[in-house]
Predict the structure of Solute carrier family 17 member 7.
Amino acid sequence: MLGRWSRCLSPGSWCSTQDGALCSTSTKFNTPWRRFFTSMPVYAIIVANFCRSWTFYLLLISQPAYFEEVFGFEISKVGLVSALPHLVMTIIVPIGGQIADFLRSRRIMSTTNVRKLMNCGGFGMEATLLLVVGYSHSKGVAISFLVLAVGFSGFAISGFNVNHLDIAPRYASILMGISNGVGTLSGMVCPIIVGAMTKHKTREEWQYVFLIASLVHYGGVIFYGVFASGEKQPWAEPEEMSEEKCGFVGHDQLAGSDESEMEDEDEPPGAPPAPPPSYGATHSTVQPPRPPPPVRDY
């Protein structure tokens, strides 16, 4: 019996019914890869991820060199200064999430507008503050505005970084992998460009580095503001490839048939047929207790 039903009773394909029966539904779906790469809301997320990753890798790799070459910081003492912007961002991210949830739950703004507000607001402020950092001649001003720039980028996490769940909840993991993969490319390109632009280690060269970072973010603001969406896309529901319904099988029938099939395999040829399986207490092989002997009166 088990072999007969093993093809349709696959793990994860059983569903319970009221009468204790089992049904098997094996369904396969197509992943809409073509729809992924022809959807502008998907490209909005990818572009935003690339733009944010550009500044992230710029600061991660080149921030110590910037403070050393422009402001004369010792490379051994720049660690705390480099970590401070990201510490502030860690505080801002949950605050931005609470603000976004408040705007959506109270229906003050639509999901699309909330995502655009958080992402474009965070990116726009970061881009503007990075310009101040690049063209600043004061050590204190550069550090302060750099902390503010990275801090404001934390609001963008409530924009593009959770947008996958809005447009395609079923495929959010795939879209996250694609956008993060493209974003990581900036970690390969950015150090090459920075190294080529700062050969002489002058202030003017670093100004162009931060100017490019700002322009990248402004580009992300425009692209995301135009093409982003917070609504579930039409292709987000899976297209059915095949469906196989195996009907209903009772628990008793499945168990009894399985046992009889196993007994048939163990019995030698020519053996008398086994009695049919019994269900419930129809008869008992246990002898009832004997009654006590009668008591005699003397």
Remarks:
- The first strand starts at residue 14 and ends at 16.
- DSSP finds ten helices and three strands in the chain.
- The chain has two domains: 2-31+240-252, 40-232.
- Residues 1-26, 242-257, 278-283 have pLDDT under 50 and may be disordered.
